[in-house]
Amino acid sequence: MKIDVIGEQLPEEEVQAYRRYVHEKYPNMKITRLVIEADGDFVDLTCCTEPVPFERIRRITGYLVGTLDRFNDAKRAEVGDRVKHDFGQSM
Asked: How many Cα atoms are found within 13 Å in the side-chain-facing hemisphere of 78?
């Protein structure tokens, strides 16, 4: 993790305490950068994290699916025949 201190200089022990705090607060996130902005008695912490991968799940023809690769030809045809509704601007 890259740590940047902006503003006043902070003792290394304090910087490491902020690093530990961020890891404890976000235990499941991979933090790539920590920006510590020190201004007198106030400190702002900004964390940059790696994106979390996710799979989009949709309800298609009565099934919750992520991709259509397991559908047979009939289900693929149902997907092709679906009417897509447009949420146009209201008057």
From this structure: 11
